[in-house]
Amino acid sequence: MTAGALGSGRLCPQLIIDSPSRAPGHRTTLVGRDLEILTLSAQLGREEHRLITLTGPGGVGKSRLACAAVGDVPIARVAYLDLHDTDGGDGLADTLAPRLPDEPSLLVLDGFEQAADATANAVDTLLGRFPRLRVLTAGRRPLGLYGERLFPVPPLPTPNPPYRQDVLELQDNAAVELFVDRARAIDPSFALTAQNAQAVAEICTRMDGLPLAIELVAEKLRLFRVDSLLTRLREGRPVLGGDHAARSPRHRSVRSITEHSFRLLDEEQRALLTRLAVFTGSMNLTTVEEFWELPTHRTEQVVEALVGRHLLRVTPGGGEPRFTLFNTVREFCLERLTATGALPEARRRHAEHFLALALRAEERLTGPQQAQWFQRLAPLHEDLLAALTHLEASGRRTDAARAALALHRFWMVRGHLALGEQWLAKASNAFLAAPGDQASAARAEAARGQFAVVRGDPRLAADCFRHAARGFHDAGDAVHERAALARLAVSQQPAGPSAVRKAAVRLLHAAVDERATVEAAYAALALATGSRLIDAKLAADLMEAANGLFMRVRDVRGEGLVLALRGALADSRGDQALAERLLWESLHRLRAVGEHTMLPTVLEGHALHVWRRLPHQGHRVARLLAAAAALREATGAHPLLVPGDAAVALREVRRLLSGPEYEAARREGRVLSADAAAGEALSVGPPAPEPVSAVSRPVQLTARQYEVAMLVSQGLTNRQISQQLRLSEWTVVNHVRQVMRRLDVPSRIHVAQWVLNRQRRNGVGTAVE
After folding, report:
1. Do 254 and 357 contact (CB within 8 A), yes or no?
2. Which of 71, 80, 477, 726 is the most buried (most CB within 10 A)?
3. Whole-prediction pTM
4. How far apart are CA 269 and CA 261, in angstroms?
């Protein structure tokens, strides 16, 4: 049956066809939608599912999916109606009713946004008139009718950055598969290779996994190589425009689809959407409210409307909802901000917001809130960098330097090492150029030196610490001067024993100063690492001083690194069981704060001990070692601690496993996130401590040592103990160290556990000496 026109809209060439297999055809394959086709076909085949609406962003492929799915529906009659160019849908029900058969049939309505209310009324009427009619609609929002079932059509899944997957894994990704398929239509010799795979993966991610955007960008291979195409995208240069005359008008550019969606918004929705275009990452509702003057309840309504129209998307993950703009929508809105002259003010407000956030985060990145703040800053990193870049470009170099200095600990923990070093170099220069900022310049140089250390550049590290020590000296900051000198002693190659001991003595005295900070603790830990082969007792004293400072401020990452170094020392003594327990506890703490930089080294050490104790865990060990190697490649971190020869374990595992088994385990490990790798390592519990013999000699503590141990078990710090016992803090430090040595335990937590166990046993381990 041939259909006539409906208003300014158009019907498919055949409104009613005899078989679903005669659905409107397409000239290209539908990639990555096998599961959606099966699921939608099954739902359409159920009589009780009378109204199903496909929803999703423009360009996601709703029309293609609808046509593909009806081909497998067990129903004889199908009608298609394309409403994309319809200006009004009045009389739609009356026009369609005479053409619909009085038998089981399916009506497909595609693109109803232009006449959403009229289409909803028509569908409601038709479903009432025809009890055996089912309706499938496709649009960017629901019709809002009773009994409507929504079928969200998401973008194609894209590879996860930093794109460490090998070519075989990337080939299985739906977005990459679509790009390659369309690229071969342009150039039949195109292939995914080790040289272009990462670029293709990033292009697909930048296209948000939208099939239309991926197809259009692949067509640009007529003009550009893959790497040139990616460079243009990174620079924000137009790529998706141009004349694609072979396509329907609405599919010739992503911009035309976005513009169509934008026209359907009201003024408030347009204003908010364009204002949010300056955000490069995700945002929560509170942040949106800060950039919008409407009352909270109205802001929520506008955001909900934008999410419902698939112009904002909800970022997956735990915790509070976070919202992001599709990159294609962001580019369109930035064009509008530029055209109206509102972009400079929007970027200024964005930069002010994230400058304030960075400064507020600085002191919270050490201490009991650090895990929450590391987690809070992670999804905001792109916006923080955009703010720094804007501040620097607008001449506010000192503000950019303050923000960079505030963020250096986040960059260190999350493995943004090259980035952190670059921004800290700029910060140091900016502070030196500003009068009266010598202390800030010294802090920036000290932080930069730490980045140079973990990146394996001792010469740069020594220069930075030398400048930092001089700056702290000029500023009268003796504690941080000693910390910088301690770092300098370790960085100089080779580090002489006398220089290390001299720096250690000065730093140990600084560590008991009430002004001592976490920086002094990390300096003590670095010095302990450097002196462990020179003077084991000195290294132990430094570790105790570092641990005391970390525990005083409850710095979980610092405690984890102390445990890692103790594990390395235990391993060097041949105490493998203790070393594995210490490394396991270290992993637990490092995972809690989302550590990336030191995590690979601790993962390798832990994997080595698992291999020694449980040789049947070869597959797991191979995965963990591969994960550690991939994380180190991603961060550029230099292994500072080597608790065991992981390379030996890797060779043994590779020899015992078959080639395919090893390669499979290696591929699995390389794509593990830092959190997932740490989680898998922790799933292998540490070895149980050896049971204490009933006839063994009880632990002997002096009365004073037992008194100190009791106060430690109550959670008191060294300073609080010294005040209660009227001793110097340094004397208390020595008592705690002696208690731990006598009990043969690695931390204050274990001292507290020993006290508790002793009390339960009612007398074992009495202080009789």
Report:
1. no
2. 80
3. 0.80
4. 11
